From TrEMBL:
It comes from the Bacteria. Gene3D superfamilies: DNA primase, PRIM domain (3.90.920.10). This is DNA ligase D polymerase domain-containing protein. Residues 30-271 form the DNA ligase D polymerase domain.
Length: 297
Protein backbone atom coordinates (compact mmCIF):
# COMPACT_ATOMS: atom_id res chain seq x y z
CA UNK A 1 0.00 0.00 0.00
CA UNK A 2 3.10 2.12 -0.25
CA UNK A 3 1.86 3.61 -3.52
CA UNK A 4 -1.40 4.64 -2.02
CA UNK A 5 0.19 6.27 1.01
CA UNK A 6 2.57 8.27 -1.18
CA UNK A 7 -0.25 9.27 -3.48
CA UNK A 8 -2.30 10.50 -0.55
CA UNK A 9 0.55 12.76 0.55
CA UNK A 10 0.77 14.35 -2.84
CA UNK A 11 -2.49 15.89 -3.96
CA UNK A 12 -1.20 16.00 -7.55
CA UNK A 13 -1.11 12.22 -7.71
CA UNK A 14 -4.34 10.35 -8.26
CA UNK A 15 -4.68 7.68 -5.59
CA UNK A 16 -4.75 4.08 -6.72
CA UNK A 17 -8.29 2.81 -6.36
CA UNK A 18 -8.93 -0.83 -5.41
CA UNK A 19 -5.31 -1.56 -4.46
CA UNK A 20 -6.47 -4.94 -3.16
CA UNK A 21 -7.80 -6.02 -6.55
CA UNK A 22 -5.95 -9.08 -7.85
CA UNK A 23 -4.48 -8.25 -11.27
CA UNK A 24 -2.31 -11.34 -11.77
CA UNK A 25 -4.57 -14.23 -10.84
CA UNK A 26 -1.93 -16.98 -11.07
CA UNK A 27 0.53 -15.23 -8.76
CA UNK A 28 -2.06 -13.34 -6.71
CA UNK A 29 -0.43 -9.93 -7.27
CA UNK A 30 -2.67 -6.94 -6.70
CA UNK A 31 -3.11 -3.55 -8.31
CA UNK A 32 -1.52 -2.04 -5.19
CA UNK A 33 1.56 -4.23 -5.67
CA UNK A 34 1.74 -3.25 -9.34
CA UNK A 35 1.57 0.43 -8.38
CA UNK A 36 4.18 -0.15 -5.65
CA UNK A 37 6.47 -1.76 -8.22
CA UNK A 38 6.19 1.15 -10.64
CA UNK A 39 6.64 3.67 -7.86
CA UNK A 40 9.81 1.89 -6.71
CA UNK A 41 11.45 1.54 -10.14
CA UNK A 42 10.18 4.87 -11.49
CA UNK A 43 13.59 6.53 -11.30
CA UNK A 44 15.16 3.72 -13.34
CA UNK A 45 12.34 3.58 -15.84
CA UNK A 46 11.68 7.26 -16.48
CA UNK A 47 14.75 8.01 -18.59
CA UNK A 48 13.47 5.44 -21.10
CA UNK A 49 9.78 6.36 -21.12
CA UNK A 50 9.49 10.07 -20.27
CA UNK A 51 8.66 12.37 -23.21
CA UNK A 52 8.17 9.51 -25.66
CA UNK A 53 4.85 8.83 -27.34
CA UNK A 54 3.50 5.77 -25.59
CA UNK A 55 1.16 2.86 -26.13
CA UNK A 56 -0.27 1.05 -23.15
CA UNK A 57 -1.39 -2.51 -22.64
CA UNK A 58 -4.39 -2.06 -20.41
CA UNK A 59 -6.10 -4.95 -18.70
CA UNK A 60 -8.83 -3.37 -16.57
CA UNK A 61 -10.07 -6.81 -15.48
CA UNK A 62 -6.55 -8.05 -14.79
CA UNK A 63 -4.02 -10.10 -16.74
CA UNK A 64 -5.47 -13.15 -18.46
CA UNK A 65 -8.72 -11.30 -19.09
CA UNK A 66 -9.29 -8.97 -22.00
CA UNK A 67 -6.34 -6.66 -22.52
CA UNK A 68 -6.03 -4.02 -25.20
CA UNK A 69 -3.35 -1.88 -26.76
CA UNK A 70 -4.16 1.80 -26.32
CA UNK A 71 -2.41 4.38 -28.48
CA UNK A 72 -4.62 7.39 -28.15
CA UNK A 73 -5.84 9.39 -25.24
CA UNK A 74 -9.46 8.95 -24.28
CA UNK A 75 -9.39 11.86 -21.87
CA UNK A 76 -9.71 9.69 -18.76
CA UNK A 77 -6.12 9.62 -17.56
CA UNK A 78 -6.09 12.89 -15.66
CA UNK A 79 -3.60 15.77 -15.55
CA UNK A 80 -0.42 13.69 -15.21
CA UNK A 81 -0.81 12.05 -18.61
CA UNK A 82 -0.09 14.46 -21.45
CA UNK A 83 -1.05 14.68 -25.11
CA UNK A 84 1.01 15.09 -28.23
CA UNK A 85 -0.71 15.44 -31.57
CA UNK A 86 0.99 13.27 -34.20
CA UNK A 87 0.23 13.09 -37.88
CA UNK A 88 -1.22 9.74 -38.94
CA UNK A 89 -0.58 8.04 -42.27
CA UNK A 90 -3.91 9.31 -43.60
CA UNK A 91 -2.82 12.88 -42.90
CA UNK A 92 -5.04 13.47 -39.88
CA UNK A 93 -3.76 14.43 -36.44
CA UNK A 94 -4.27 12.11 -33.46
CA UNK A 95 -3.45 12.74 -29.82
CA UNK A 96 -0.90 10.31 -28.47
CA UNK A 97 -0.08 9.87 -24.81
CA UNK A 98 3.14 10.74 -23.05
CA UNK A 99 4.23 11.16 -19.47
CA UNK A 100 7.13 12.99 -17.90
CA UNK A 101 7.20 11.85 -14.31
CA UNK A 102 6.36 9.08 -11.86
CA UNK A 103 2.89 10.50 -11.29
CA UNK A 104 2.23 9.91 -14.99
CA UNK A 105 3.25 6.27 -14.69
CA UNK A 106 0.94 5.80 -11.72
CA UNK A 107 -1.95 7.54 -13.45
CA UNK A 108 -1.65 4.91 -16.18
CA UNK A 109 -1.57 2.10 -13.61
CA UNK A 110 -4.66 3.55 -12.01
CA UNK A 111 -6.35 3.13 -15.42
CA UNK A 112 -5.51 -0.58 -15.54
CA UNK A 113 -2.22 -0.34 -17.43
CA UNK A 114 0.18 -3.23 -17.03
CA UNK A 115 2.61 -2.70 -19.94
CA UNK A 116 4.30 0.48 -21.20
CA UNK A 117 5.47 0.59 -24.83
CA UNK A 118 7.29 3.54 -26.31
CA UNK A 119 8.22 5.10 -29.61
CA UNK A 120 11.83 5.36 -30.74
CA UNK A 121 11.61 9.14 -30.74
CA UNK A 122 10.72 11.91 -28.34
CA UNK A 123 7.98 14.49 -28.30
CA UNK A 124 10.33 17.40 -29.08
CA UNK A 125 10.77 15.90 -32.55
CA UNK A 126 8.77 12.74 -33.16
CA UNK A 127 10.10 12.58 -36.72
CA UNK A 128 13.71 12.17 -35.53
CA UNK A 129 14.25 8.72 -34.00
CA UNK A 130 16.93 8.39 -31.31
CA UNK A 131 17.26 4.64 -31.00
CA UNK A 132 17.11 1.47 -33.02
CA UNK A 133 15.94 -1.89 -31.71
CA UNK A 134 16.53 -5.36 -33.02
CA UNK A 135 13.85 -7.47 -31.40
CA UNK A 136 14.98 -11.09 -31.42
CA UNK A 137 11.95 -13.35 -31.67
CA UNK A 138 12.98 -17.01 -31.38
CA UNK A 139 10.93 -19.87 -32.73
CA UNK A 140 9.16 -21.82 -29.99
CA UNK A 141 11.39 -24.38 -28.36
CA UNK A 142 14.72 -22.75 -29.26
CA UNK A 143 17.25 -22.95 -26.46
CA UNK A 144 17.78 -19.55 -24.82
CA UNK A 145 21.56 -19.93 -25.25
CA UNK A 146 20.90 -19.71 -28.99
CA UNK A 147 19.16 -16.38 -28.44
CA UNK A 148 21.89 -14.91 -26.25
CA UNK A 149 24.52 -16.00 -28.77
CA UNK A 150 22.53 -14.35 -31.54
CA UNK A 151 22.29 -11.13 -29.54
CA UNK A 152 26.07 -11.18 -29.06
CA UNK A 153 26.62 -11.69 -32.76
CA UNK A 154 24.38 -8.74 -33.53
CA UNK A 155 26.29 -6.67 -30.96
CA UNK A 156 29.57 -7.61 -32.68
CA UNK A 157 28.27 -6.78 -36.15
CA UNK A 158 27.01 -3.44 -34.89
CA UNK A 159 30.36 -2.80 -33.24
CA UNK A 160 31.94 -3.45 -36.64
CA UNK A 161 29.90 -0.50 -37.88
CA UNK A 162 31.06 1.59 -34.93
CA UNK A 163 27.85 1.21 -32.95
CA UNK A 164 27.58 0.39 -29.26
CA UNK A 165 24.50 -1.64 -28.34
CA UNK A 166 22.79 -2.84 -25.19
CA UNK A 167 20.75 -5.93 -24.32
CA UNK A 168 17.35 -6.09 -22.70
CA UNK A 169 15.45 -9.20 -21.64
CA UNK A 170 11.93 -8.66 -22.91
CA UNK A 171 10.23 -10.38 -19.99
CA UNK A 172 8.73 -12.69 -22.62
CA UNK A 173 10.66 -14.96 -24.93
CA UNK A 174 13.35 -12.87 -26.52
CA UNK A 175 16.03 -10.24 -26.24
CA UNK A 176 16.01 -6.69 -27.58
CA UNK A 177 19.32 -5.30 -28.82
CA UNK A 178 19.08 -1.55 -28.32
CA UNK A 179 21.18 1.00 -30.21
CA UNK A 180 20.95 4.57 -28.90
CA UNK A 181 21.47 7.11 -31.69
CA UNK A 182 21.81 10.84 -31.86
CA UNK A 183 18.73 12.11 -33.69
CA UNK A 184 19.41 13.42 -37.14
CA UNK A 185 18.00 10.84 -39.53
CA UNK A 186 14.50 10.19 -40.75
CA UNK A 187 12.33 7.24 -39.83
CA UNK A 188 12.80 5.94 -43.36
CA UNK A 189 16.58 6.01 -42.92
CA UNK A 190 16.29 4.10 -39.63
CA UNK A 191 13.88 1.60 -41.06
CA UNK A 192 16.00 1.00 -44.14
CA UNK A 193 19.17 0.59 -42.12
CA UNK A 194 17.51 -1.89 -39.73
CA UNK A 195 15.96 -3.82 -42.61
CA UNK A 196 19.22 -4.07 -44.52
CA UNK A 197 21.09 -5.09 -41.38
CA UNK A 198 18.58 -7.87 -40.58
CA UNK A 199 18.43 -9.08 -44.18
CA UNK A 200 22.22 -9.21 -44.47
CA UNK A 201 22.38 -11.33 -41.33
CA UNK A 202 19.64 -13.67 -42.56
CA UNK A 203 21.43 -14.01 -45.89
CA UNK A 204 24.76 -14.72 -44.22
CA UNK A 205 23.35 -17.27 -41.78
CA UNK A 206 20.03 -18.53 -43.12
CA UNK A 207 20.01 -21.53 -40.81
CA UNK A 208 20.01 -19.24 -37.75
CA UNK A 209 18.18 -16.10 -38.77
CA UNK A 210 15.17 -14.95 -40.70
CA UNK A 211 14.27 -11.35 -41.47
CA UNK A 212 10.62 -11.87 -42.40
CA UNK A 213 7.78 -12.22 -39.94
CA UNK A 214 6.48 -15.55 -41.32
CA UNK A 215 5.99 -17.94 -38.39
CA UNK A 216 5.86 -20.89 -40.76
CA UNK A 217 9.36 -20.14 -42.05
CA UNK A 218 10.81 -19.40 -38.62
CA UNK A 219 11.33 -23.12 -37.83
CA UNK A 220 14.30 -23.44 -35.52
CA UNK A 221 15.37 -19.87 -36.29
CA UNK A 222 15.29 -16.43 -34.78
CA UNK A 223 13.27 -13.71 -36.47
CA UNK A 224 15.24 -10.47 -36.31
CA UNK A 225 12.29 -8.14 -35.96
CA UNK A 226 13.53 -4.90 -37.52
CA UNK A 227 9.96 -3.62 -37.88
CA UNK A 228 10.19 -1.97 -34.46
CA UNK A 229 12.08 0.79 -36.30
CA UNK A 230 9.25 2.05 -38.45
CA UNK A 231 7.51 5.30 -37.68
CA UNK A 232 4.67 4.57 -35.28
CA UNK A 233 6.09 1.26 -34.02
CA UNK A 234 6.71 0.75 -30.35
CA UNK A 235 8.75 -1.56 -28.20
CA UNK A 236 8.19 -2.54 -24.61
CA UNK A 237 9.98 -0.13 -22.27
CA UNK A 238 12.76 -1.13 -19.91
CA UNK A 239 11.29 -2.05 -16.51
CA UNK A 240 7.77 -2.47 -17.87
CA UNK A 241 5.86 -5.31 -16.27
CA UNK A 242 4.45 -7.75 -18.84
CA UNK A 243 0.81 -8.87 -18.87
CA UNK A 244 1.89 -12.50 -18.77
CA UNK A 245 1.76 -15.20 -16.11
CA UNK A 246 3.92 -14.38 -13.11
CA UNK A 247 4.15 -10.63 -13.90
CA UNK A 248 7.62 -10.79 -15.50
CA UNK A 249 9.49 -7.55 -16.18
CA UNK A 250 11.50 -6.27 -19.16
CA UNK A 251 15.01 -5.76 -17.79
CA UNK A 252 18.20 -4.16 -19.09
CA UNK A 253 21.22 -6.42 -18.62
CA UNK A 254 24.94 -6.08 -19.21
CA UNK A 255 26.44 -8.26 -21.91
CA UNK A 256 28.26 -10.48 -19.38
CA UNK A 257 25.00 -10.91 -17.45
CA UNK A 258 23.10 -11.85 -20.60
CA UNK A 259 25.42 -14.78 -21.17
CA UNK A 260 24.41 -16.25 -17.78
CA UNK A 261 20.66 -16.01 -18.34
CA UNK A 262 18.53 -19.09 -19.04
CA UNK A 263 15.41 -17.22 -20.10
CA UNK A 264 14.06 -13.75 -20.91
CA UNK A 265 11.99 -13.42 -17.75
CA UNK A 266 14.19 -13.89 -14.68
CA UNK A 267 12.70 -10.90 -12.82
CA UNK A 268 9.14 -10.08 -11.87
CA UNK A 269 7.02 -7.43 -10.21
CA UNK A 270 8.07 -8.63 -6.75
CA UNK A 271 11.75 -7.98 -7.51
CA UNK A 272 11.63 -4.17 -7.38
CA UNK A 273 14.27 -3.98 -4.63
CA UNK A 274 16.67 -6.25 -6.49
CA UNK A 275 16.12 -4.31 -9.70
CA UNK A 276 16.76 -1.00 -7.96
CA UNK A 277 19.98 -2.22 -6.42
CA UNK A 278 21.30 -3.73 -9.63
CA UNK A 279 20.04 -0.85 -11.78
CA UNK A 280 22.19 1.58 -9.84
CA UNK A 281 25.22 -0.68 -9.86
CA UNK A 282 28.25 -0.08 -12.01
CA UNK A 283 27.82 -1.65 -15.40
CA UNK A 284 24.16 -0.81 -15.72
CA UNK A 285 24.31 2.88 -14.84
CA UNK A 286 25.19 3.81 -18.43
CA UNK A 287 22.87 1.28 -20.03
CA UNK A 288 21.21 2.56 -23.17
CA UNK A 289 23.36 5.66 -23.45
CA UNK A 290 25.91 6.24 -26.23
CA UNK A 291 26.82 9.31 -28.21
CA UNK A 292 26.73 7.94 -31.74
CA UNK A 293 24.97 8.55 -35.01
CA UNK A 294 23.62 6.26 -37.69
CA UNK A 295 26.48 5.46 -40.08
CA UNK A 296 26.14 7.02 -43.53
CA UNK A 297 25.50 4.40 -46.15
P1 LIG B 1 8.89 -11.34 -26.75
O1 LIG B 1 10.30 -11.39 -26.24
O2 LIG B 1 8.03 -12.37 -26.12
O3 LIG B 1 8.84 -11.33 -28.24
P2 LIG B 1 8.17 -8.60 -27.12
O4 LIG B 1 7.81 -7.46 -26.25
O5 LIG B 1 9.40 -8.42 -27.94
O6 LIG B 1 8.31 -9.92 -26.23
P3 LIG B 1 6.72 -8.96 -29.62
O7 LIG B 1 5.55 -9.84 -29.89
O8 LIG B 1 7.98 -9.31 -30.30
O9 LIG B 1 6.91 -8.93 -28.01
O10 LIG B 1 6.26 -7.50 -29.93
C1 LIG B 1 7.17 -6.51 -30.21
C2 LIG B 1 6.49 -5.18 -29.97
O11 LIG B 1 5.38 -4.99 -30.83
C3 LIG B 1 5.89 -5.04 -28.59
O12 LIG B 1 6.85 -4.75 -27.62
C4 LIG B 1 4.92 -3.91 -28.81
O13 LIG B 1 5.47 -2.65 -28.57
C5 LIG B 1 4.48 -4.11 -30.22
N1 LIG B 1 3.12 -4.67 -30.18
C6 LIG B 1 2.74 -5.81 -29.61
N2 LIG B 1 1.40 -5.98 -29.72
C7 LIG B 1 0.93 -4.91 -30.39
C8 LIG B 1 -0.37 -4.48 -30.82
N3 LIG B 1 -1.46 -5.19 -30.56
N4 LIG B 1 -0.45 -3.32 -31.46
C9 LIG B 1 0.64 -2.58 -31.72
N5 LIG B 1 1.89 -2.95 -31.34
C10 LIG B 1 2.03 -4.08 -30.68
MN1 LIG C 1 9.99 -9.79 -29.40
MN1 LIG D 1 8.62 -8.91 -32.45
Amino acid sequence: MQARAAAMNDPHKAPISHPERVIFPDAGYTKGQLAGYYEAVGSLMLPFVATRPMSLVRCPQGQGKRCFFQKHDNGAFGPDVHHIPIREKDGGLEDYIYIDDGAGILACVQMGTIEFHVWGSRIDDVEAPDRMIFDLDPDDGLDFAVVTRAAEDIRDRLAGLGLTSFAMLSGGKGVHVVVPLVPGHSWDAHRDFAKRFAEALARAEPERFIATMSKARRKGRIFIDWLRNQRGSTAVAPYSVRARDGAPVAVPVTWPELRKMDNAHPYALVDADVLLKRGRAKGLDGWGVADQGLPES
